Amino acid sequence: MLANQEKAKQLQRFFKTGKGQYGDGDIFFGITVPEQRNVAKKFKEIELIKLKPFMNSGIHEERLVALLILVQKFEKGNETEKKKIYKFYFENMKGVNNWDLVDLTAPKIVGTWLQDKDRKILFKLAKSNDLWKKRIAVLATFAFIKNGDFKDSLAISEILLKDKHDLIHKAIGWMLREIGKKDLATEEGFLKKHYKEMPRTMLRYAIERFEEEKRLNYLKGRI
């Protein structure tokens, strides 16, 4: 049995499952991610229809395993299969409701699928009132960034610049940092325009790799 009661308690604290927190009510078995990846590999041939109950499970690990299977299927699928998986992901998006679930899947499924397609859906998600839809919109752009395409990531960052949730602040700061790895001038162009109004956490994430003097100058508003 892979479940670990003590680990489950730790995870429930780590993923903020208390009343009123972002993971309110989520239940953990205490199974490690490597163990879940092994389970996903064993069941990678399962039909999508049979994954649906797990995508909507109240157990965090069951949702994650289902999503890891989806990623495997998407990566190996042809264009028709990829489209079907992308659609299935959106139909069951309610179960993609914690940051690890988003981060491990949005770039690999949503972002990869939209690479050469209309991306209006991301702007719709970014403007929703749902925390996880907004984070999916942000993280999906990671796939674009890896290919040197920054436009939509920057546009979505502007839309969410004044969002209230720190998980959005962290996500945007992370994407800006990734842009900087590819093109520092583009990241700094965005920062110089917005850094004084950015939430502190977002800025700290974005400038994490800067040399110390420059990082402190941003933090002290001296740029």
Describe the structure.
It is a single chain. The chain is mainly α and 223 residues long. The chain is 65% helix and 0% strand. The chain has helices spanning 5-14, 33-42, 48-55, 60-76, 79-91, 99-103, 106-113, 120-126, 131-140, 142-145, 151-159, 166-182, 184-194, 200-206, 212-219. The longest helix is centred in the first third of the chain and has 17 residues, at 60-76.
Secondary-structure blueprint:
Elements: H1 5-14, H2 33-42, H3 48-55, H4 60-76, H5 79-91, H6 99-103, H7 106-113, H8 120-126, H9 131-140, H10 142-145, H11 151-159, H12 166-182, H13 184-194, H14 200-206, H15 212-219
Helix pairs in contact: 2-4, 3-4, 4-5, 7-9, 8-9, 9-12, 12-13, 12-14
Features:
223 residues; mainly alpha; single chain; 15 helices; globular
Short recap of the structure:
The protein has 223 residues and is mostly helical. The chain has helices spanning 5-14, 33-42, 48-55, 60-76, 79-91, 99-103, 106-113, 120-126, 131-140, 142-145, 151-159, 166-182, 184-194, 200-206, 212-219.
Distance N to C terminus: 55 Å
**Helix and strand sequence:** HHHHHHHHHHHHHHH
Q: How would a textbook summarize the main sheet?
A: none
SS elements, strand count? 0
Give the low-confidence spans: none
The tally of helices reads 15
The shape, in one word, is globular
Radius of gyration: 18 Å
